[in-house]
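note to self — DONT lose this again. spent like an hour looking for the file last time. sequence + predicted structure for the chain T wanted, 230 res
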Amino acid sequence: MTRRACLLLAAVLLPSCSAMQDEPRGPQDLAATQRAKDLLWIVESDSGTAISSATAFGPGRLVTTATSVEDWVGLPLRVRRNGTVLPVRAMQLAVHQNFAILQVQEPGLQAPQAAADPAPNQRLFMAAANGGNVFDGGGPVVPLSAPVDGIANPRDVVVAELPAARGFAGGPVVDSGGNLIGIASGVLRGGVVDPAVPASVTPGSRVPHRSVIVLPVRVIDRTMQQEGLR
């Protein structure tokens, strides 16, 4: 069964929320969103077309969603952050989870501090890119209202009400201390995990909040060990 088909089997009975407003931001919120921005890179084609977001994951390594880049296997890709552009030297797709490892020539990338599993209603923060425009925001963890079909362990995902627009997949999600929870990997739409969000937004406008599926760092690390990824 293909990865895309497996994702569509992962259904939960939880409605997405597209109109949730951000809570007022204090210094801790601002620091957390800045940390998410520090981890964010934009994945582009060799011609500069934005494809998805990606998260710094250690020396010479970034992680994004497999569904974002699987059609680009064998084609030139690059990643960009501010004025820095780096070619992707190699790409590895995880077989059993929706993520991909992008290898770049940048030993200065630091492995982020991983966070413990978030509690229900704990506030999380993320940053992502819609085209070349970076957006960020925060929202609470939402408990799953039903078992997740097609996923052996429901604890392998986290759901939070976070901003999501085209290009958000692969963006870093952190806790209030700036520790990395995981990457945005899809949204819940009509009770089904959908890895794509078609909506674009006008620069400077508010990005709608949705029920965002987060793939935790611990699941990425475990899968990398099981599949021999590096």
